[in-house]
Design brief:
Strands 2-1-5-4-3 form a 5-stranded antiparallel β-sheet, with helices on both faces. 36% of the residues lie in helices and 26% in strands. Strand 11 and strand 12 form a beta hairpin. It is of the alpha+beta class. Helix 8 runs antiparallel to helix 9.
Length: 281
């Protein structure tokens, strides 16, 4: 099956359309229509090769069409992402209509797409390929994620408010850390006080998951010199949140103590009272 362009629309069949003028209709074709949409419309054959692809996106990025046409799913998306699309296309070739969501990262930005696949049949009813539409739903998805994040934050505050009166200080702090870990989808959490001298930490509390599953910690209540601590105390010196997205490759980091959990990335937030840091989360 080869589909690079489709035939002109010759038969509109009603008086209203006829009034548009014969010149307009004679120049109107499916390529023009499909290349006017913000969605990506495509046709895939039974060998999972793109045989046609249309969108007004190609006016801005003409090379994208050339990167897809006559190429297989694996060639366009790579093995891992191509496998996801391949499984959906196999269902469509069996006669199913398939809708699914997919996300990809480009230049550190995540894009979300909703993809709809419909079996493409010939006059005898035999499935000869797939007609698909890919719609960018990034804006809706990001709004949904922001809403969910806000809801999780509100639930966390409510949980702390409702349970806080019945907890001692240690349990209250640990509940707070656990809620922060949940909101940020983290595995490790801690909360340490900073002494009035601004030179020492009072090691206070770690998240439940940290204590039970990740670290062999026996330092609660100890005092620890800030000058001897690792890169996570940068938040103390800068008096603002600090993020390390690639912890293992930091050239100036100190070695982790024995029994410490593996750290991939970290967010550390100072708690300020006036101009003093009173705690680090």
């Amino acid at each position: 099956m080869t589909v690079f362009g489709l035939n002109k629309i010759n038969n509109i069949g009603n008086n209203e359309s006829q009034s548009l003028g014969n010149d307009f209709l004679s120049n109107l074709n499916y390529d023009m229509l499909l290349n006017s949409t913000n969605d990506i419309v495509f046709v895939i054959d039974k060998e999972f090769v793109f045989r046609g692809i249309w969108s007004n996106i190609f006016k801005r990025k003409p090379n994208l069409r050339e990167l897809s046409i006559n190429r297989s799913l694996e060639e366009v998306y790579g093995d891992e992402a191509g496998f996801v699309h391949l499984q959906a296309c196999k269902k469509a070739l069996k006669g199913e209509s398939v809708t699914y969501e997919w996300q990809t990262v480009e230049d550190s930005e995540t894009f979300f797409f909703q993809i709809s696949l419909t079996p493409l049949a010939n006059e005898k009813g035999n499935v000869i390929g797939i007609f698909g539409i890919s719609r960018d739903i990034s804006h809706q998805k990001q709004s949904q994620l922001k809403f969910e994040s806000t809801r999780e934050t509100i639930n966390a505050v409510l949980n702390l408010t409702q349970r806080g009166y019945d907890l001692n200080l240690d349990d209250f702090i640990q509940l707070g850390i656990d809620e922060c870990v949940k909101i940020t989808a983290s595995k490790i959490g801690f909360f340490h006080f900073v002494d009035d001298d601004q030179e020492n930490l009072h090691l206070q509390m770690w998240s439940t998951n940290t204590i039970q599953n990740l670290c062999n910690i026996d330092a609660k209540g100890e005092h620890y010199q800030i000058s001897s601590a690792g890169v996570w105390v940068e938040a103390f010196y800068q008096k603002k949140p600090v993020i390390h997205n690639d912890y293992s490759n930091l050239s100036y980091k100190k070695s982790l103590p024995e029994g410490h959990a593996f750290v991939e990335r970290e967010l550390v937030v100072p708690v300020l009272r006036g101009d003093k840091v009173i705690a680090i989360l």
